[in-house]
Amino acid sequence: MDKLKKKKLFLFDMDGTLYLGNRLYDFTNELLDTIKSSGGRYMFMTNNSSRSVSDYIKKLAGLGVKAVREDFITSSQATAYYLNKHYKGKTLYVCGTESLKEELRANGYEITESLDKVEVVVMGFDTELTFKKLEDVSKLLLLRRDIPYIATNPDYVCPTEFGSVPDCGSVCDMLYNVSGRRPLVIGKDFVLVGYKESEWSEKI
């Protein structure tokens, strides 16, 4: 316990770690309170790009956990960070939820469904997935072989109360079978190992 108290920063996954679906685990609030009372700080990390940070703040509040924007590192944020470094100002086709689109628009990106205007394809964990989106991405990957293709996270499944559901990686595999193309994968781990610590020091 003494060694634990010496730690100053704790990074927590959320889905299946602090809660499952809409059920907060019994230990979660006690754990977070103990970290705070010991002078530490915790941050929430997730590969689940189906929700924006604003949505996660609301979800945690509904579960009885207070949080602010600075408490999060998400795959949506990591994707926006990567785009800002390499494709700033480009027009995106986003196969993802409205929440993911909201996060990217907040970072200054135009999102379009007009395929002739698309400059970068972004795949997310899309709980609003339609066949039209799959068809659109198939066209972009097949007819424009050089178009940048980015995925928010590599996960094949997302945990739920009843087991799991297909996540971004599963859909990307489906599109690989169509196009032969694999995306550049981002994700929360990309933030920790893909860039120098100083580049994210203002967040942590």
Write a structural description.
With 204 residues, this protein is an alpha/beta fold. It is 40% helix and 19% strand. The protein contains 9 helices and 11 strands. The protein has helices at residues 2-6, 28-37, 53-62, 75-86, 98-106, 131-143, 168-179, 188-194, 197-200, and strands at residues 9-13, 19-20, 23-24, 41-46, 72-74, 92-95, 120-123, 149-151, 157-160, 163-166, 184-185. The strands form 4 sheets. The protein has a 4-stranded parallel sheet with strand order 6-7-8-11, with helices on one face. A 3-stranded parallel sheet has the order 1-4-5. Strand 4, helix 3 and strand 5 (72-74) form a beta-alpha-beta unit. 31% of the residues are buried.
What does this entry show, briefly?
With 204 residues, the protein is α/β, with parallel strands linked by helices. It has helices at residues 2-6, 28-37, 53-62, 75-86, 98-106, 131-143, 168-179, 188-194, 197-200; strands at 9-13, 19-20, 23-24, 41-46, 72-74, 92-95, 120-123, 149-151, 157-160, 163-166, 184-185.
List the helices and strands and how they pair.
Blueprint (H helix, E strand, L loop, with lengths): L1 H5 L2 E5 L5 E2 L2 E2 L3 H10 L3 E6 L6 H10 L9 E3 H12 L5 E4 L2 H9 L13 E4 L7 H13 L5 E3 L5 E4 L2 E4 L1 H12 L4 E2 L2 H7 L2 H4 L4
Parallel strand pairs: 1-4, 4-5, 6-7, 7-8, 8-11
Antiparallel strand pairs: 2-3, 9-10
Name its key features:
3-stranded parallel sheet, single chain, disordered C terminus, alpha/beta, 9 helices, 204 residues, elongated
